[in-house]
TrEMBL record:
Protein origin, superkingdom: Bacteria
CDD domains hit by this protein: cupin_TM1112-like (cd02227)
A Pfam family the protein falls into: Cupin_3
Name of the molecule in the record: Cupin domain-containing protein
UniProt signal peptide: none
Domain annotation (S)-ureidoglycine aminohydrolase cupin: ranges: 42-111
Annotated InterPro entries: RmlC-like_jellyroll, RmlC_Cupin_sf, UGlyAH_Cupin_dom
Amino acid sequence: MTAIIRVTPNAGDISHGPIASAKVLQGKPNSTTAHQFTNSQNNFHCGVWSSDAGKWTLNYTEDEFCYIIDGEAIITDQNGVGEKLTKGDAFVVPAGFSGTWETINSVQKFYAIYEKAE
């Protein structure tokens, strides 16, 4: 039996970089991903993600569960309906969602992503 895998900030395979410039609507946001698990089918992933201030477009092909550890963000759908998310908020972004993500100052979240197997 395999041991459990704890998901914690600043552990795992850590990568840093800017949000893709083609997606950016405001600011020059950078993100950090502390990727900590991928299953054997390569369609489930989890870890900790953070970014600094900025706004960019989203187009989800995957389902993602998130839990805000710190900071705040606003997710707005393609119809202009926004949701402010702050520390302690848990939510799901379903596959097919299109809209924007805006980080206010900074944000950090746990993420768990499921992508339909191809």
